[in-house]
Design a protein that fits this description.
Blueprint: H1 2-21, H2 28-38, H3 46-55, H4 59-69, H5 73-78, H6 80-96
């Protein structure tokens, strides 16, 4: 009896994972944002210039999209190191307020 219940749970979890895999992957804009966040920038203004030139968006919009992206599980799957680092930074800044 217990084995049947456990097998049922495993099958249900497998279906849930399959549905998650059926989600749309991150778009090129979202992947570009994460790639930009992995890079280091030499001085003030360099990152904002790269945002405008490489992604064609304003820095304000960039940070709005980035903040939403940090809550997206697809982003975590795509680049867990960067997403987790940025989540920690965001959490520490919230704690300081």
């Amino acid at each position: 009896m217990e084995g049947e219940q456990e097998q049922g749970r495993e099958e249900e979890q497998g279906r849930e994972r399959g549905q998650e895999r059926g989600r749309e992957p991150l778009g090129s804009r979202e992947r570009g944002i994460l790639a930009l966040e992995r890079r280091g920038f030499p001085g003030p203004g360099a990152k904002e210039r790269a945002i405008r030139e490489e992604l064609g968006m304003s820095p304000v919009r960039y940070y709005q999209v980035l903040n939403a992206l940090l809550d997206d599980e697809r982003a975590l799957e795509h680049d867990p190191v960067t997403v987790n680092r940025l989540r920690r930074v965001r959490q520490s800044r919230r704690a300081e307020r």
